[in-house]
Specification:
heterodimer, A: alpha+beta, Immunoglobulin-like, 5-stranded mixed β-sheet
Chain lengths: 193, 291
């Protein structure tokens, strides 16, 4: 009887020790996770990434049909079924080459909202910024970055917020060891002329 | 009632098959952890070491390296290896193994007859069902929890970065907030859900106990139902996927994402139907076999 009692005490003691070791290990691993240095940049302020400074100067949210009415040259990208399922966010950015002028422009500028991220359509981007393709782009000029915001990626509540322009977006440049998050907080509604 | 319930749960959690079932689950869990560690974790940290040696003026300095979070390595959400699919495919078998065949065995051996003359029929069947439910749920939960603890010992308890494109759960899926921001709570929520479904799957065997002449057929029945739902019903009509139990149980939500209302509806309907069929099948069943 005494032997069983002591056995139970020893087992309980070992269980407690094991629990403490595991808890400490989990805390240690979580505390030492590799997090990037995050630079949060407000709209209108600049972030330097690969030797180029990016400043968001304007952001316009378009209804899908209105966008293609405004940008008639992009008609080939229009899809009938997307009319009520997609909004277009066009971000205007000023690009300035810093330092010794050897900066690299990276068109991989994903936008993040809620837990969703979108990349840029490279072909639409090229058509909206021909100067970048034909070599006529100069430091200090502006580019236009189109993002398609899909209804299917958002919950009903989120989609209502997107349509009412209550959503905060961020453009992420780089991820590790430095991550630049350019916030888009001031969005105006686009109206086709 | 308390006495018979205590007895049934005591028996359910001490059968050899209970430990065998948990053992199989833990073996799958260990194999999955080993696979993930060698194929993802080690490679990811090799890349990190490369990037750590770069300087600011190197074009590769700014890159897209992401820390691997605990949910990426957890058996429930790790979809790259076969182990997630294997575990949830044989989930009904693991759930029914501990105590699912007990009613069949006891009924045919005459043990039930001995209990029924000492105890109310309703109490006996209720206690049996609760014991099977609990043992089935525990058999599924323990490997998931074990795997989570082991994963957390080498993967940080951080959510998945949406930009990493390694997230298996989408923005509009069920419990996306927990997945991306509170991984431990996501694991807890899904473990509870899998406990319930594991218990229900084990109880399916109870429902068909008296319709088969073979304990093997009784035990394999929930697995057959699961396969029918996963491969059969889904192929015929994929619109039913959000109500399909075989998809709901998987925390990776690979079936196009779960919806909380559909999941709750499936849970309550399944519980209701299982209890109804079970008591209808045993309401007036005589322990003495007809000659």
């Amino acid at each position: 009887m005494k032997k069983t009692y002591y056995k139970k005490i020893i087992i309980l003691f070992l269980e407690i020790i094991a629990t403490i070791i595991i808890v400490f290990r989990i805390s240690y691993v979580t505390k030492n996770a590799h997090h990037p240095q995050v630079n949060i940049v407000s709209q209108g302020d600049g972030a330097v990434y690969k030797g180029v400074e990016y400043i968001i100067t304007d952001a316009v949210m378009w209804e899908y049909n209105d966008f293609y009415d405004e940008y008639k040259e992009l008609d080939e990208y229009y899809i009938d079924d997307y009319a009520d399922e997609c909004m277009m966010l066009v971000v205007e950015m000023e690009l300035t080459v810093k330092d010794d002028g050897s900066g690299t422009f990276d068109y991989y500028m994903p936008i993040q909202y809620y837990y969703q991220d979108n990349g840029v359509d490279p072909f639409m981007f090229a058509d909206m910024n021909p100067a970048l393709i034909d070599g006529g782009f100069c430091s200090g000029e502006h580019i236009f970055v189109p993002y398609e915001i899909y209804k299917v990626n958002a919950t009903e509540k989120q989609w209502n917020e997107i349509e009412d322009m209550k959503t905060t977006y961020k453009i992420v440049l780089g991820n590790y060891p430095e991550r630049n998050e350019l916030l888009i907080t001031d969005i105006r509604r686009g109206v086709a002329e | 009632m308390r006495q018979i319930l205590k007895l049934e749960i005591y028996k359910a959690l001490r059968t050899k098959t209970f430990f065998i079932s948990i053992g199989i689950g833990i073996i799958i869990s260990v194999l999955q952890t080993n696979w993930f560690y060698n194929n993802f974790f080690v490679e990811n940290y090799r890349l990190l070491e490369e990037y750590m040696n770069l300087t600011n003026d190197d074009p590769h300095y700014f890159n897209v390296w992401f820390e691997t979070g605990v949910l990426q390595g957890w058996l429930g959400c790790e979809y790259a290896s076969v182990y997630n699919e294997l575990f949830f495919l044989i989930m009904p078998l693991l759930a029914v193994l501990p105590y699912g065949g007990a009613l069949y065995m006891e009924w045919n051996k005459g043990y039930s007859a001995q209990i029924l003359i000492r105890c109310d029929r309703k109490k006996y069947f209720t206690a049996k069902m609760i014991a099977v439910f609990v043992s089935g749920g525990i058999a599924i939960s323990i490997p998931l929890i074990f795997n989570f603890i082991v994963s957390a010992c080498y993967l940080p308890m951080i959510g998945v970065d949406p930009l990493s494109m390694q997230a298996i759960v989408a923005n509009r899926d069920m419990w996306a907030v927990l997945y991306f921001d509170y991984p431990a709570l996501y694991v807890l929520a899904y473990t509870i859900l899998d406990f319930v479904f594991g218990g229900l799957m084990a109880c399916m065997a109870l429902v068909v106990t008296h319709f088969f002449d073979n304990v093997f057929a009784v035990m394999i029945f929930p697995l057959l139902v699961n396969c029918l739902l996963y491969y059969g019903l889904d192929t015929v009509d994929s619109a039913t996927r959000k109500y399909n139990m075989s998809f709901i149980v998987n925390p990776s939500q690979g079936g196009g994402g779960n919806e909380i209302l559909a999941v709750m509806t499936t849970v309550f309907m399944s519980i209701f139907i299982t209890i109804l069929l079970y008591f209808m099948a045993n309401r007036k069943r005589d322990v003495i076999k007809e000659r």
